[in-house]
Structure formats: C-alpha cells, structure tokens
Amino acid sequence: MKRLYSFLAILAIIFAANCTRIEDNNDPIIGIWNDKSFSEAEKSIETQSHEWIFNDAYLGRYQSYNNNKLDFKTDFKWSEEDGVYTITYPGTDMPSNKVSMTGSIEGDMLEFTNGSLLAIRE
Asked: Which of 4, 34, 46, 122 could form a disulfide with 51 if both were Cys (CB 3.0 to 4.6 A apart)?
C-alpha cells in the first residue's frame, strides 16, 4: 500500500510541476537602457545619468548616477499597450512615464509620447 501512495505522490508532483509553466515574454524592451551617451555630450563638470533595466516579469530596476556614483535606485513596473509602454515607480513620488520604442541609425531608443528622448539601448 505504501508503494501505491508513493507512486501517486510522485505522479501528483510531476503533474503539478508541468501545469505551472511561466509564459515566455519576448518583448523587445527587455534589456538595459540608459541616457549616458547624450548626458555626457553636454560636457558639464557634473555628470548625471540614468539607467533602466527591464526584465521579462514586467518589472525592472531604475538607477540614477551622479558623477558615476550610484545616487538613487528603485524598482519599477512596466506594461505595454498598443506600442506605448507605461513605467510606474511604486513606493516613490516619481511620476510614471509613457514611452514608445523607435529605431534609428544610433540604435533603439525610448521616446516620451511628446517625442523627447528618454534612453538608448545599451
């Protein structure tokens, strides 16, 4: 009888493991984006840059650097609807961003809905 219960327990574990597959997210925004290239072009003494790391679980990490030293970091959530990405920063007073992805000779870019540049893919 113990063999039967053991066999049924193994089958239940295998069945549960096969039913809990996570869907693949292959969104083109996944990766590291920053504004270093155009903030360094300003040639100021004090440099400030920002970095967004998007992952496939609709989450990410935002980091702000001042003179190449980490100044601030927080997590963010992102979603996509009709090519417009919404980035929200829960637990902070940072406003949410609405951006779209465009491509150019320089590479992929994230632009605000008004056309100004947010970041370039690293």
From this structure: 34
Cα–Cα distance between 111 and 85 in angstroms, integer? 10
Place of tokens 């940072």: 94
Predicted TM-score (pTM) of the model is: 0.75
Distance CA 34, CA 119 (A): 5
Q: How many helices (H) and strands (E) does the chain have?
A: 2, 8
| 90 alpha carbon, distance to own chain's centre | 14
| Nearest CA-CA partner of 50 in 30, 77, 31, 73 | 73
122 burial (CB, 10 Å; 0-12 / 13-18 / 19+) is middle
What average pLDDT score do residues 61-85 get?
95
